[in-house]
Amino acid sequence: MHQTFVELLERNAEHAEEFQSRFGGVQDSQHPAVVTVCCSDSRVLQDEMWGNDEPGRVFTCSNIGNRVVQRTEAGEAVSGDVLYPVEHTGTDTVVVVGHTGCGAVTATYDALTDDLSEPPGIDHCLGLLKPRLESGVEALPDDVDRAEAINRLVEYNVDRQVEFLVESDDIPDATVVVGVVYDFQDVYGERRGEVHVVNVDDEREVDALREAHPEIDDRIARLWTY
């Protein structure tokens, strides 16, 4: 057996030893307080970023590009893995988690600007991002370098995912939808791994967000106002 997997099993044994007494209240049902939609990236520590060690507290979804949209025969819809906890477990908060240096955003940017292609499975995923990022690519200032362009588009993508949820009839009006960016590149500051709030219920203006949410005003920041 590959040594990497052996090491994973060893760590799982430690996990099971620590958590064996923590599943009593959630063995038959779950009522998570929040559903998070993260990017599938090995650098994004999806539960660790919240310090979460409580089974049943966070319903964690992930895919490349932290997308909330899927295609159905009836057209685009809120992705089932995001909608499930809202529809069936009483979850009333959705957090869309982008991250600096996102590979999916980078690949979408390259596809839009250089017509680069990917294998079909990846291309399908990028196809869900392209319509939402195309206007962002067009709006980028001419003087931004590639890395800055990508990180601006990371915010733009989070905004578009939040917007889709807010406008969807499938998401109850009382649901709070938050957009954040997880930073490990010192883009927003010097605390690697810190989450920065860029959008709440489709409000993107920093001053308005800080006025509305003073308890987190020091965690609200944006790279790009467009």
TrEMBL record:
Keywords: Lyase, Metal-binding, Zinc
Pfam families for this protein: Pro_CA (PF00484)
Cofactor binding note: Binds 1 zinc ion per subunit.
SMART domains noted in UniProt: Pro_CA
GO molecular function list: carbonate dehydratase activity; zinc ion binding
Similarity-based family: Belongs to the beta-class carbonic anhydrase family.
PANTHER family tied to this protein: CARBONIC ANHYDRASE (PTHR11002)
Protein name as catalogued: carbonic anhydrase
